[in-house]
Structure to design on (439 residues):
């Protein structure tokens, strides 16, 4: 409803969970705020207040709509820090590891995005799918075609979401229909930055696909875009697959290692996101750490394409700590759901003798990923001033979940672990974007 000064006010009621710090381990009660019967007051798309229903209800303007989700667990909308929007029809492609998978499936499918109508249709599907899964912000690879970026940002803007995306830059080792040049890649990226970076909630990511598909001249151009446009992000792939790493070694014989290829062109930094980071040597870890770059953990993809096991302890807990985020990497990844992603992350870490407590997983999907994007205070928490991007979860959504939940009485850690281990889009009751139901 509109109040006396014409702003749009509503409220969302349920069980509120939001993190205030990184959990030190299972059961770290100090890392989050939990309110059993809470209310989020939303004014013009942003959170005005969040707290006990008993305290806030009485202060709402008369007639305020209250969406009540009894038993619903309300958490900040999930953030996916690495996903490919043109791979919705690549997901579930059989039997190949990275380089073959790219050539046989991905590059074939991405060529269809030369057609603007195809890109627009897929943008609608992609956004529907993200929101059905509770994801309200994502860092997105489009294709080499500027029209694919245009279609994606336009759809995000229509939905009111805040997305980060960029045109893939690729000027070699790809089919002719998917190649730009160092010059056109630069010009087209720059035009897209001017048009979309900072337009409402949209942000741009300079996106050289990976070292294999860019010449030195193009990486140089990507570095220039980074330098010349403060505030843009940079995303690429790094050290995912052993044959990929060997190919990079042959293409860049002067580089000390794979990370050094990007380093030479000024592509490391605190707004730089490197997908995968599985087979790094110690010097690479040090450079990522020193430069405050982000290593993006993509567990379903790493398992599905058979790339290897991400070593979270070594990266984030070592002498040279690297900032880490979590992501689906659809369509190498096999699910749009951050819950499924956390479940597979848990298993990957188990195989390496490590763990992922449920609190840490939920922190990563929300506040942790927001911090990795430098967006803490705007998304990822339920705090005044943040966008009211929220997801309402139901830990009893399926018979198997409801049955398991019978054994859990009021233990939040256990409920979260059930949600991440057994949950998926079925556990998402509602997704709010700027306070509007959007699932
Ligand atoms: N490396 C270069 N391109 C890609 C891609 O599309 N997906 C994955 N998983 N790795 C890549
Ligand atoms: Zn990827």
């Amino acid at each position: 409803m509109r109040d006396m000064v014409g702003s749009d006010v509503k409220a969302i009621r349920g069980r509120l969970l939001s993190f205030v710090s990184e959990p030190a381990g299972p059961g770290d009660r100090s890392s989050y705020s939990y309110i059993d019967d809470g209310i989020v007051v939303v004014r013009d798309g942003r959170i005005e207040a969040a707290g006990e229903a008993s305290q806030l209800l009485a202060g709402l303007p008369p007639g305020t709509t209250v969406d009540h989700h009894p038993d619903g667990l309300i958490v900040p909308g999930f953030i996916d820090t690495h996903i490919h929007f043109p791979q919705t029809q690549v997901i579930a492609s059989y039997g190949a590891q990275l380089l073959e998978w790219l050539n046989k499936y991905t590059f074939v499918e991405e060529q269809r995005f030369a057609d603007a109508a195809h890109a627009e249709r897929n943008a609608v599907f992609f956004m529907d799918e993200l929101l059905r899964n509770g994801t309200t912000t994502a860092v997105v690879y489009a294709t080499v075609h500027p029209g694919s970026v245009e279609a994606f940002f336009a759809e995000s803007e229509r939905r009111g979401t805040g997305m980060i995306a960029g045109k893939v830059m690729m000027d070699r080792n790809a089919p002719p229909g998917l190649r730009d040049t160092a010059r056109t890649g630069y010009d087209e990226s720059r035009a897209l930055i001017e048009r979309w970076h900072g337009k409402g909630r949209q942000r741009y990511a300079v996106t050289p696909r990976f070292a294999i598909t860019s010449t030195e001249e193009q990486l140089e151009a990507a570095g220039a875009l980074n330098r010349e446009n403060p505030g843009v992000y940079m995303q690429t792939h790094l050290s995912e697959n052993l044959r990929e790493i060997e190919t990079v070694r042959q293409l860049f014989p002067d580089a000390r290692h794979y990370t050094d290829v990007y380093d030479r062109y000024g592509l490391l930094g605190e707004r730089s996101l490197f997908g995968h980071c599985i087979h790094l040597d110690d010097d690479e870890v040090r450079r990522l750490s020193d430069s405050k770059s982000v290593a993006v953990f993509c567990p379903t993809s790493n398992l599905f394409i058979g790339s290897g096991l991400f070593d979270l302890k070594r990266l984030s807990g070592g002498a040279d700590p690297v900032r880490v985020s979590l992501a689906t990497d659809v369509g190498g990844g096999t699910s749009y759901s951050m819950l499924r992603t956390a479940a597979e992350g848990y298993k990957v870490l188990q195989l390496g003798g490590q763990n992922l407590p449920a609190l840490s997983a939920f922190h990563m999907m929300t506040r942790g990923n927001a911090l990795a994007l430098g967006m803490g205070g705007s998304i990822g928490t339920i705090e005044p001033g943040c966008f009211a991007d929220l997801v309402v979860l139901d830990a009893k959504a399926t018979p198997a979940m409801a049955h398991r939940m019978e054994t859990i009485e009021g233990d939040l850690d256990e409920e979260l672990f059930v949600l991440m281990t057994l949950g998926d889009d079925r556990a998402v009751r509602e997704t709010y974007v700027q306070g509007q139901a959007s699932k």
Q: What stands out?
A: The chain has a mean pLDDT of 97.
